[in-house]
Amino acid sequence: MSTITDNINKLRNQIRSAAATYQRSADGxxxxxxxxxxxxxxxxQAHEAGLFDIGENYLQEALEKQAQLTHLPLTxxxxxxxxxxxxxxIAENFTWVHTVDRLKVAQRLSAQRPAHLPPLxxxxxxxxxxxxxxxxxxxxxxxxxxxxxxNLDNVTLRxxxxxxxxxxxxxxxxxxxxxxxxxxxxxxxxxxxxxDTLSMGMSDDLEAAIAEGATCIRIGTAIFGQRN
Length: 228
Ligand SMILES: *Cc1c(COP(=O)(O)O)cnc(C)c1O
Description:
Elements: H1 3-21, E1 30-34, H2 40-48, E2 53-56, H3 59-68, E3 75-78, H4 87-93, E4 96-100, H5 103-112, E5 120-125, H6 142-150, E6 155-161, H7 170-191, E7 197-199, H8 206-211, E8 216-219, H9 221-224
Parallel strand pairs: 1-2, 1-8, 2-3, 3-4, 4-5, 5-6, 6-7
Helix pairs in contact: 4-5
The structure holds pyridoxal-5'-phosphate (PLP).
Pyridoxal-5'-phosphate (PLP) binds next to β8 and α9.
Family: Belongs to the pyridoxal phosphate-binding protein YggS/PROSC family.
Keywords: Pyridoxal phosphate
Function: Pyridoxal 5'-phosphate (PLP)-binding protein, which is involved in PLP homeostasis.
């Protein structure tokens, strides 16, 4: 068995066990394989082990791997900061964007989404730890942003994404994830939305994320090993 297959099997067990502990169905937790710096053949191995959702952070790197993997039925998710001059290629080549944090980017993605494709799924990235330097929408601007995105034609707002400040404390990890879940519920109530996606949890905090309702965990290291 390849290391990647082995890692994915271990990850699945970890997810099943966390789901059971927190009385959730493991079926409601999607594994997004985050493959930045890893090769197209590593992605193909992850697919072989049953994964379909692939996350990439850098446009050029992603396009190169996509070109090598057109024979596989993969769903591509963009996870990096979205620069305005990259929105067209992102709108054309991805199914999801998890890192929308301002209206201008959402407007461009909507305007540039090709007509023959379904609306682009997007998550608003929230700056949950309120760090000055970090990307993500400020919590107090979230309702306004979500409301404006909701009115765009060719994107579908699906939920929220966070990259919390790293912590080794389980309780602290859970707090940021819980707050994000509550923010999504508030948006659904206030704006009458049906957001269903909480993109949260990485290799080191996936159990806390599952405890607080993550529906999509973004896993790199625990699948592909350390990045260089
Ligand atoms: C790299 C990355 C991940 C995966 O992180 P690991 O700790 O390797 O699992 C998840 N989300 C985003 C946005 C990333 O950039």
